[in-house]
Amino acid sequence: MDLPVAAGGVDPPTNLMPRRVLVTGGAGFIGSHVVARLMLMGNQVRVLDNFSAGRIENLVDAAYSGLTESDVVSGDIRTPEGVEVIHRWQPDVVVHLAAQSSVPAARRSHLYDADVNVFGTVNVLDACARSGVRLVINAVSGAIFGSVAAHELPVGEDRPIAPVSPYGISMAAGLRYLDWYGHQHGLSYTSMVLGNVYGPRPQGSDCGVVSLMADALLGGRQVVIYDDGAQTRDFIYVSDVAEAIAVACHHNGVGMVNIASGRQTSVNEVYDTVREASGVDNAARYEPLPWPGEVRTMALDSRKARELLGWYPKVGFTAGVRMTVRDARRRQDASQILSPVWALERAISH
Ligand SMILES: NC(=O)c1ccc[n+]([C@@H]2O[C@H](COP(=O)([O-])OP(=O)(O)OC[C@H]3O[C@@H](n4cnc5c(N)ncnc54)[C@H](O)[C@@H]3O)[C@@H](O)[C@H]2O)c1
Hints:
binds nicotinamide-adenine-dinucleotide; UDP-glucose 4-epimerase; 7-stranded parallel sheet; two-stranded parallel sheet; NAD(P)-bd_dom_sf; 350 residues; Epimerase_deHydtase
């Protein structure tokens, strides 16, 4: 079979308007922003989620743009019934974001992590290949590159994949399977390697350092920083990621592409920025890392995304942190006066 996309290969950019986009994990943190963005762009969108981490109230924005209850499918990507919607609805683009997305949880339960991120991903890709899906877009983490020396940053897409954590390994396996489906089944794909995504609506106890710090400071709790806080990550605001995915839906597959700021920001810098944005001036407590082998520094080079998708990050770190802190404050206030489920029902019925 002739292949439209080689591993890491590139189709020429086009302006394809997708008719139907299915977003797996669409009720999660990144997924809900993607769904809202796609709805605003006038696409037909369906969400597939098992609500293990996602929340129906995350879809309120999308509901205001016309997403209805019948567009939200409850199902598990690891089962044949879960991915049945791909066969039945025949989307032309599948944005695959359903995942076990927590690095610490993957350390605690790597079998579950592999089950969702490897087996679940293969199950989704198989359904896509059988249903004639035009394009698959998925998200993986910079953890696939493992430890990289500071002088070799930012990392380009051609860097060897060398994960050192269960989460990095399962993400890398999903990426490799996507490559294989590209070769063997002609599935066109864009595999986005994301920096550390932050912004409004994160979930759970491992929801990302910016939100954890904001919630702790606003809630009057002391922030714990592991190690010396000089470790760095590449932070990217969630609306920038949603935009990258929405833009990619309108192109053919571009293979692997970094979506990140290209800048290293240390945990200490994150803390200073969140402290300033929240107006709460508590000292953090420093503790030794509870696990060995933590990646020390990371930044991703996103020039390929600019070249092939015309995408570049728009939201600076300080502005993004301010918006995240504002959202954290609003959530804390709103939790006392308004049920979010009621808000979704109200949004859908108007
Ligand atoms: N948030 C980040 O900083 C970041 C960075 C790099 C990559 N990623 C990747 O981006 C994707 C989305 O991440 P996120 O931060 O939105 O995570 P999230 O946990 O908020 O969203 C994942 C969604 O998948 C759903 N899900 C989990 N298991 C499922 C299953 N078996 N069947 C159906 N649905 C299931 C959850 O309910 C949730 O709504 C993931 O692949 C994640 O690994 C995230």
